[in-house]
Structure formats: structure tokens, C-alpha cells
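Human:
Focus on the backbone:
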Amino acid sequence: MPHRHTVLHDAVIAGAGPVGLFLACELRLAGLSVLVLEQAEDPHSPLKRLPFGMRGLSAPTLEALYRRGLLDDVVAAQRAGAASPAAAHWARQPRRPAGHFAGIQFYQDDVDPAAWPWHLPSPAGTGMAVTLESFETVLAARASAIGVSIRRGCGVDGLDSSGDEVAVHAGGETFRARWLIGCDGGRSLVRKAAGFDFAGTDPEFTGYSAEVELADPDALPPGRHYSAAGMFTYAPPGTIAMVDFDGGAFHRTRPITPEHVQAVLRRVTGTEVTLRALRLATTWTDRAHQATAYRKGRVLLAGDAAHIHSPLGGQGLNLGIGDAMNLGWKLAATIRGTAPAGLLDSYAAERHPAGAQVLDWSRAQVALMRPSPGTRALAAIVRDLTATRDGATYFAERVSGVSLRYALDGTHPLAGRSMPDFALADGRQAGPLLCEGKGLLLDFDAHAPLHAVAARRDGRIDYVACDAKVRLGLSAVLVRPDGVVAWASEGGPDAGEAERAAARWFG
């Protein structure tokens, strides 16, 4: 019989990847008891250090880190790591890349930031590359420091859910939780055990990321290249990513041998390149699936457990951190009993469409990579569009995440968007005012009725009366704990509207 623990945790999280760790920090910030269960005994994996394992953090992710006081640690950890050949290759390019779409590069000097009127300059920026290992290390350190319990080598292998708690079976033990959140990846056992539907499209290719030693490192041209069989990216002397349109037949079906990688590399590149050694390799596909619901009773999903897709463009990690930032404060308020009706339901209502959009963005890139004459012709047109100012701005907006907006009540165009990082007259920035995970009411003109709106929320909304150096025409802004603007006003603010918005999100 498995050992059954008597302690009832507010939340048990399956998975100690970035999404699970960030969510654990969010819940612990609210004073909840949090246990993270992770299957892997060792958090350090060579695959997490693969140069093509670098992850591009988007604006919403960087803003989340900035607002919770984690950004400086992430930057420091990344600088302390060794620079990869791939990163060095891109750093030597004559123009600064702003991202890519299906391997078609667009550049920062073509992007027009004036097209984003609600985005102010911020220490968070709009993009940054990190290794998965350094990112996880920072999040794990923060989680441990604030009292999150992390059990490694103890993966979830079953669950039983009753009316008011979940029994979580892991490593021969049973843990009790008020809520269970599956952040255990694309093959999520939590998702399967709880019976979530996972609908989507099957893969068209097997992707490879590898560190190799080539007999002739100059045999391949550096950079991204389409070919008659797929696409490959090469950063000398031996960092390779390639896509083989085999219907995903090889992914996780056989061992990745040097002979196989050489055969695929020759087919995709059209050269007789020879491998002397295969140092590291992993495969991936463009399979795109999404849970039809993100909650079943007291079980929730976030990150890859809720949605999987091709890693093209690096959207997956950002999508998962967005899930965690959106869910954390809502679940915390639900557990504390302060949540207004429907608050937890808004998690799926807001994040499911965001996930669906990213899956379609991924599918569109796959469609543009197919090795056919028609696709190559279409890719040439897209390449021309990305070289224009409007085109580059559009693609950069989508990739950076600055266009993210939830469909909230309210007529102001800032409602549902990320709060601009206002520079306040007293020298503070608005972003760090969210570091304690509370709501924020910024009142640029010190209206007494607005102060009362915050005061009625019993410490759940911080009220700050201070002018801003750049107001963007606003007089007051109510911000949710995740940094999303719930209400904004120009001119004399309507305290009644502010009260209704506060009641909607804070009770």
C-alpha cells in the first residue's frame, strides 16, 4: 500500500519545468502551501544546454519576470553561462534579427515601434534569449527560497479526485491537495489520468537539433536554408537543426544514431557531408494539439500539458509562462475564498484562445516550409513582405507578444492589454509595484473616490496616487495582479466604472 500523507496542500503541481516552477512561485507569493512533484531526479540535462535549445523570451514573459523581481536574476544567470556557437553566429550578423517566420528572417531596423501606442520603454524589453537550464535554475532557486516544496524523482502516476480535494499518487506515495495542476509536459500524465480531451493535427515532419563533429565544418553554408527535402540551419562548427518531412515517423520511435543523423542530413542538405561524431541530439515534431478544456473539477492544466505544437519561433515556453501568470492569482483567490464568481473560469476563457492562436501560427509556418514549388513561391512573397516596414512590424508584433489582448469588459483600448511601464514622477517605475502579486490602482490625479475603491478590497489592491512622466492621455488605471489592465480612464475618472471593474476581478 502506498504511504498516504496527512498534510493537505493548497496546491500540488506536477512538473518542475519553467511553467510549474513559475506557477509555484505565484501561488506561494499568495501565502499558499505548494508542493511540486517532478519525475526527473536531476534538473540538469545536456539537452537543456543545446544551443538550439535556446529559448526566446517574449515581451509578456519578460514583463512577468520584471514585475515579480526575477528579471535581473535571469539576465545574470544567462550572462554567466557560456556563449553557444549558435548565439555567436547570430551575434556576428550585420543586422540585428527581430525573429523569424518559418525560417524567414525579419530585422529590428525594419520594425516600427510607433505602431504599438500602448507600449512604453521598459527594462523588460521585447525579447531575450536564454538557455532552458539557466531559466529553470533561477525559477527553482526563487521557489525554494520562498518556501515551495520540490520533490524530484517523484513523478505523478495517478490521481483520484473527490468533491473537495485530489489524491495525487507519485513514487509509491499519495499526497493530498485542494487543487492539482498538470504542468508535466506534452505527454502529461495528469491530463490523461483526469480524462481531458486533447484535439489537434498530426505531424508532417521530424525535426532534429544536434551537436555534431563534421569531417569538414565548411561543407555546409551557415544560416537557415530551404532545400528540396526540408530545411536546415547550421551554426559552425557543428550546431545543426533540420526538418525532414517524413510525417513525424522517426520521432521517439528509434534510437538517434550517428548513421541516421548523417543520412537525414545528407538528404535534407543535398550534400555528401560526413559526421565524425554525434555529441547530442534530440527530435521534435509539428504535432499540434490542445486540451478542449483547461479545468476538470479540481484539476487544471497549464503549459505543454494544455497545448503542444512545433517549437518554430519559440512560442511554447512563452505561452506556458502566460498560462501560469494568468492562473496563479486567480487560483490563489479561489483557494483563499476571496474570488468573485467566475474568476477561475476566466483562466480558460482567456488562455484557450491565446493557445489556439499560437497553434495556428505554428501550423502556418509548417505550411510555408513544405518542400514543394508552390510553397517556395509563397515563401518568396512572404519574404518580400517581411522586408517592408509594415510587414516586419506585423511579424515582430506577433512574435514579441506585444499585441496580446484579452477580451475584457470596458471600452478603453488599453483594457485587456499589458500595463505600460509608466515612469512615475517620484522616480519609481510601475512594473515593480506588482512585485507582491496584488492588484494596482494607479491614480495620476489623486481622486479620493478611487482611493475608496481600493480601500474596500482589504489589501488586495495597492493604491498609488502619483503623476507619470508620460501618461498616454490617461488619468487612472486599474491593473490585475498579472499586469493586465482591467480598467482605464481618460479625463475625470468615473468611480462607478472603477468600482464595477474592481468588483469583477477582486470581489
About this structure: The chain has a mean pLDDT of 92. The radius of gyration is 24 Å.
